Each structure stands twice: as C-alpha cells, then as structure tokens.
C-alpha cells in the first residue's frame, strides 16, 4: 500500500534452523558438533529459510536433514548427489546441501559423487568421514586404513584406502576443503566459505565415531599431538607447522620435504606458499597427498576457483533453444513424429 511502511523480515537465528525432531546419534558422536555449526552458519547467509534444501543418502550422517528446519530429502544409498542435481536443475534459485558419509558417498555412491563434481553442479557436499560403517555397526569403509580389523575384515582389510580430497580434485571440483568436527572455529569457517562458493563445494569432515572407531583422527585432534601433525592452510601464507611454528614444507627435486626454519639457512622464503585460487588443480592435488605419519595433514581450503556451473549452462541452453524454436508445448511434443492408435478388441 502507498505510504505504508515496508515490513522488514526479522533476521534469522540458529534456533530458526532447529527442527522439532529429537536428535538421535550416539552420545559423544561428532555429528552433533557438525549439526550445531551448520545451524550456526545458515542464518548468517541472508537466505530465506524456505530456499534451503538438504539432501542425504543412507548412514548415520544422513539423518541430519531431519534436524535442520528446512526443506529436505532423506533419499537412497549413494544417490543424494543425483537427486540434488535434479533439484538444482529445476530450481537454480535454491541453495542445495548434500549430507553424506564415507561409505555412502565413496562406495555405492562414488560414481554419482564424481559426476556431480565434474559437472560443477552448484551444491554443497559435506562428507562425514569416520573411516567406518557406523550405522551397520562397524564394517570397514572405503577410507579405512590398510590392515583395519573390523567385523567384516577380522584378519585386517586388504583394500588400499581412498583419499576423498584427491578424488574430488581429480574430478576438478571447484571448491575442495577438509576440516574436523572438534575444531568448531575451523569447521564454521570452512562451512561459511563453502556456502558462499558458486559451484560444486566439497568438504571432507574428519568425524569421530566413538562406538566403532574412536580416536581415528587422534593425531590431529589430540592437543599434545596436533601441532606437529597438521598444517592449517591459509591462502598466501607459507606451509608452516609445529608447536614452535618452526617447521615447514618445501619442494626439492619435485618432492615435498619437511625442513626446520633456521637450520642450514632455511627461511620462510624457501617454503611452499599456499595458493587456493590456482586454476591448475595440480598444486592442490600435491597437498592432498601429504598424509601422516610421514607428513602433517593439511586442513582448510585446498582449492577455490570460479567456473560456470551446470545450472547456469543449462539455463543458457534452454534460453537459446527457446529464442530459436519458441517455447515448446507438451501436446505438440507428444503428437510429433510417428504416432499410432491402439484400437480396442474388434471381435
């Protein structure tokens, strides 16, 4: 109405994204911390609550859509990226999140994950990695370490583990990051960056399963160990780590090596400087191969680059087709080409 003061929608809070469902994970599960940070970040984005959609497959992590007060789908094993692609293609205005686990995404869902990343579908994929099948009570998963003894591998796993970050970079995902459930500051920062990214955002989250694989990531979660076993990636800064911040990573003869600052004339100028915006994924892939116990584990954003998304390309294609051929009609489509009639019984 003319002269009427425009109503401003009240700012959303974390509580607006808390559903009426009882949260049911095992006491001490890392999923609680991830859920809390997701609910903290969502109201900061300035997006109406009805414009969020959370899609999950099957597994402990996949219960998360029940607990976030938005639209959501609890779908079928490994197929969440495919269903999310359909949602984003039809409703590009929505922000779509995929919640999955190392078993759901990397075994039965591996093919769907790869193709959603290579197509640069504009979705946020959170992969909860606890290196175990938790929902089905403790079988080894695609990320379980070699020799892992579980209910399904009583003599030790003979499978070589899959590296989720390397896989995502191999598929040329435009945003790739890794964080930990227990580091709320890093977790919220990475989630915020992923939410703002336009394109496929893949986030691996080290998540502790207290029942079937407790302390799987002790080297980067234990306060006494983590300083020497992890590197916090910061764009434009050298790769430095250690309790005394005196160790770093340099490349010599095409191979990474750990050096100590101050020894043999080594300075920060000799170290690798992190560049998350490199168009070539080779550098980020190099980082993804730094693994314990030989090297510290990189945490943070490995890669963040811009590239036209699949939904943008689809929109351009539809618009061009309509300009050339006009807006189609379903009746005309069904009646085009070779048609025939099936008559009833003539007896």
Strand content: 15-25%
- Range of helix content: 25-40%
CATH architectural type of the largest domain: 3-Layer(aba) Sandwich
Q: Name the CATH superfamily assignment of the largest domain.
A: Thiamin diphosphate (ThDP)-binding fold, Pyr/PP domains
Average pLDDT, all residues: 94
By DSSP (H or I, 4+ residues per run), the number of helices equals 12
Q: What is the H/E order?
A: HEHEHEHHEHEHEHHEEEEHEHH
Structural class: alpha/beta
Q: What's the CATH topology name of the largest domain?
A: Rossmann fold
Low-confidence stretches: none
Radius of gyration: 24 Å
Description:
The chain is α/β, with parallel strands linked by helices and about 350 residues long. The chain has 2 domains: about 15-235 and about 275-310, Thiamin diphosphate (ThDP)-binding fold, Pyr/PP domains (Rossmann fold); about 240-275, no CATH class. About 30% of the residues lie in helices and about 15% in strands. The protein is built from 12 helices and 11 strands. It has helices at about 30-40, 65, 80-90, 100-110, 110-120, 165-170, 185-195, 220, 225-230, 280-290, 310-325, 330-335, and strands at about 50-55, 70-75, 95-100, 125-130, 175-180, 200-205, 230, 240, 245-250, 255-260, 295-305. Strands 2-1-3-4-6-5-11-7 form an 8-stranded mixed β-sheet, sandwiched between helices. β8 and β9 form a beta hairpin. α1 (about 30-40) crosses α7 (about 185-195), α4 (about 100-110) crosses α5 (about 110-120) and α6 (about 165-170) runs antiparallel to α10 (about 280-290). The chain starts with about 30 loop residues before the first helix and ends in a 13-residue tail after the last helix. The mean pLDDT is about 95.
